[in-house]
Specification:
Elements lengths: L1 H24 L47 H4 L6 H4 L14 E7 L3 E2 L6 E8 L5 E4 L6 E6 L2 E5 L11 E4 L4 E3 L4 E2 L23 E9 L2 E2 L4 E5 L1
Parallel strand pairs: 2-12
Antiparallel strand pairs: 1-3, 3-8, 3-9, 4-7, 5-6, 5-10, 10-11, 10-12
Length: 228
Amino acid sequence: MYRRRRIILLLAVLAAVALVWVLVAQPWRGNAQPTDAAVPAASASPSASPTEEPVPDEAPVASPTPSEKPVDAAASASPAPSPSSSATATPAPAPCRAADVTVQARTDQDTYAAGQNPQLSITLTNDSAVGCTMNVGTTTQKFTVTSGEDVWWRSTDCQTEPSDMVVLIAPGQSVSSATPLVWDRTRSSVSSCDATDRQRAPGGGASYFLSVEIGGVASSDPAQMLLY
């Protein structure tokens, strides 16, 4: 009985000594020192470090500095110039005046042999320093062939489907008939347009004169032609 008590007492003393040694020596600290090469795992809890703030999806807009005033797009836009301030409208060309143009009667030849029909045309020249407009259509054209006081042929006697054509004639520009009229060397009248037996103009070197008119302006001089 006494021996058992001594053994229990000895075990208790040994246990106390071992506990004191453990508390003093702390043998577990030998492998717990951190090393410089170790990378700490990311913490699941939010970090309190100010250098690791989450980046927002949209960067915040910097407020303007005192020298950078906000610009109003509507106020900065330049006002559109009004038509009156940007350019002065160019006035439309005026109609040609009789004093500003020259009208000439033209024939394709001076002398025609028997059987040759004269081809008649008009030449119009703007003698002014500015452009002008004129109706040069067939409604304003007139060809007249005379011999002395006798009127042999007028283009208006049997004219069909006359038309208007207003053109701009530049300063110094001359325009001529696109297609000459052909005189068949017969006497015309409004009542004989479809006749096949109209009187023929005598030849043998007889003189005939062509006068023309266009846009209300008549030729100053007639063009002479000799028929044989």
